[in-house]
Amino acid sequence: MKLTHLILASASVIALTVAPAAAQEKKHAIATFISGGPTGTWFPTATAISELVNKHYDGQPVSTIPGKGAIGNPLAVGSGKADFGLSYGPFLRAIYDGNNPVMPKEGMKNLRTIANVVANTVQISMAGDVPKDIFSQVKNGAKVRIGVGAKGSSNLFGIERIMEMHGTDFKGIEAAGGTVMEGAQEGLLDAYMNRQIDIYTNTVGLLASDLQQATAARDSYLFDMPDEIRDRMVKDWGYTKFDIPAGTYTGQDKPVRALNLPTTIFTSADMDDEIVYLMVKDMAENQDRLISAYSGFKTWKPEDMPDSHPIPTHPGAVKYYKERGWMK
């Protein structure tokens, strides 16, 4: 009897020892996740997601690397120089489509969306004496003094598209005697507060300190974007509609129609379904880990991951979303 107990106990110890190793016997080819600079939010976000996925595989195949930004990252994945990436929806769509200002040559049709994560909001602070329809009046000679962000930034890109949909552009503003000020947000904020410009813009999270300063430092209101402009930005460039809740900023007593710039995780059509499925599953079920990487995930909802994808969704992600009832 003692011998039997000893054998059973030994077998149990062996099983406990072997089980974790067996769970890690699954192999996967090395895969790189191209993100952003180490001091930004994309790098820690990609690192957290990579760590979650690596728990399923032997040898930690997914590694995070610094990226080349919202345009450079899709180009890297599309050309096979990286396997996963982070970008903004409009840039990802532009590079997928091709033959546009972002991607002047043929598009990269092999790109696939995995999930939408934390979005930034296009926010436009107008001085109190600026007419609400000022953008549509530029083509009739109205003068605008506006700060649009740094050259190559997502903010400048979005504001330029919005101006075009109002029948003008930056050159048109200047031709009408207005001012288009480019540069770092700090300098543009100073210019707004010192009345060198009358419209301050930034694409950033709600309650960002610069928008709070802009709306509190001088009589201001947030631009309420017409539905026809929002509809076109969604259709043509992959933005999503968003209403800034009432009371978000000083003097804002009503919701304000705006746009969100979705941050999107993507890969190529060649990536296997299993690892993509595990990636979205791990993200959905480990929000606390994502919050520890970037606090913006506190307001993120996992069920929003499949919403308004700018390009086709990878089938591995589709499988999980359908299992959860988040996609038909």
What order do the helices and strands come in, and which of them pair?
Layout (H helix, E strand, L loop, with lengths): L1 H22 L7 E4 L7 H13 L7 E4 L3 H10 L5 E5 H9 L13 E6 L3 E8 L6 H4 L7 E5 L4 H12 L4 H6 L3 E4 L2 H9 L5 E6 L4 H9 L2 E3 L4 H11 L2 E5 L11 E6 L1 E6 L4 H13 L1 H7 L21 H10 L4
Parallel strand pairs: 1-2, 1-3, 6-7, 6-8
Antiparallel strand pairs: 3-12, 4-12, 5-8, 5-9, 5-11, 10-11
CATH class of the largest domain: Alpha Beta
Q: What fraction, in percent, of the residue positions are helical?
A: 40-55%
How widely separated are the two ends? Answer: 59 Å
Low-confidence stretches: 1-23
Order of helices and strands: HEHEHEHEEHEHHEHEHEHEEEHHH
CATH architecture designation of the largest domain: 3-Layer(aba) Sandwich
- By CATH, the superfamily of the largest domain comes out as Periplasmic binding protein-like II
> What form results from the Cα inertia axes?
elongated
Secondary structure tally, helices: 13
The main pleated sheet reads as: 7 strands, mixed
User: Which fold name is given in CATH as the topology of the largest domain?
Assistant: D-Maltodextrin-Binding Protein, domain 2
- How many strands in all? 12
Number of domains: 2
Helix/strand-derived class?
alpha/beta
The overall pLDDT, averaged over residues, is 91
Evaluate the radius of gyration. 24 Å
Which strand-content bin applies to the residues? Answer: 15-25%
